[in-house]
Amino acid sequence: MGERLLWVGTYTRDSEPTGTGVGVYLAWMDTGSGRLGGGGAAVEAVGPSFLAMHPDGGKVYAVSERMEGALSWFAAGEGWASVTLGETPTGGKAPCHVLVHPAGKHVIAANYFSGSVSVHPIEGDAAPGPAVALLEGEGSGPVPGRQEGPRAHCTAIAPGGRHLLIADLGADLLRVHPFDAEAAEPVGEAQEPVRLEPGTGPRHIAMHPAGFLYVSGELDARVHVLQWDQDKASAWPVGTVDASQYEGEVEAVYPSEIALSPSGERLYVANRGADTVTTFAVEEGGASLRLLAEYPTGGKWPRHFAVTSGHVVVANQMSGTVTTMPIDEEGVAGEPVDRLSIPDPACVLPVGE
């Protein structure tokens, strides 16, 4: 057994929404017991609410979730971080998600309020350059206050590696673009989007090795299962399940992060409002989900989690805590075993994974 280092992104005084964090924090988890330590600020930054690491492990990229959106980056060494190395505009408003392409040549930011996605080349020192593409969205949905226009909430590389998917919460779409990391202009023209039921509010995407997509519906509180066809560059629905079976008094349930176990046999979903993580069994080769269990996270408003070293590590935004939920022999994320105070945590990024 050993220790797993964790970068934790937060909301800060100048971010949108505002918070009480000061940037990116560094914690550690005992991989045997799930006990947490550390939790001090490592890098000052504005609104680093989502983090991603370069494949070489040497740089961490962070969104700056504010109206004049930007990406920042910092060096990641042996359990320490330098000051922020630089910043580049995303060309959009309030970026809430960042993705490093697996080839390590591009960083991709989803600008929530403007609904756009910016694609940045990674230069020789791993610094993201000015955007080579700004992918604008369009459309709306039926939920007042949330779907008046496009709202880009995350991006993902589709199974097969040839297309970029954009989860558009505001328009109930998965937008699709061809993507070639080796090309000078990596992004192709938009193709026919994947349309979800009105009011779904697609937020995040998990992908099964067999080609199935699992989409958390923030606004309909369901998990949508889709089959991806890389030759047609499209997907179609094959089923849905409720993200939570919580029966307590709560105004609504808003699913957030969704992720598979390393084996692909279990799917985990965090539920804000219910303040739980649900574990599903992945069956029929990835085509269906069966609820196994649902446990409280030990905090309030689980915005994000990471599956690492036999645990689900949860960023509970409104309680200002990070908690660890051990995964048992059946793959179920159970009762939390420890908590660590970090102000307004929004994202957990394990080091070395």
From TrEMBL:
Q: Which SUPFAM superfamilies match?
A: C-terminal (heme d1) domain of cytochrome cd1-nitrite reductase
Stretches of the chain forming a coiled coil according to its record: none
InterPro entries assigned = Cycloisomerase_2 (IPR050282), Haem_d1_sf (IPR011048), Lactonase_7-beta_prop (IPR019405), WD40/YVTN_repeat-like_dom_sf (IPR015943)
Q: Which Pfam families match?
A: Lactonase (PF10282)
Gene3D superfamilies xref list = YVTN repeat-like/Quinoprotein amine dehydrogenase
- PANTHER family hit by this protein: 6-PHOSPHOGLUCONOLACTONASE (PTHR30344:SF1), 6-PHOSPHOGLUCONOLACTONASE-RELATED (PTHR30344)
| Family, per entry | Belongs to the cycloisomerase 2 family.
Q: What is this protein called?
A: Lactonase family protein
What organism does the record attribute this protein to?
A: Nocardiopsis suaedae
From the broadest rank down, the organism's phylogenetic lineage runs:
Bacteria, Bacillati, Actinomycetota, Actinomycetes, Streptosporangiales
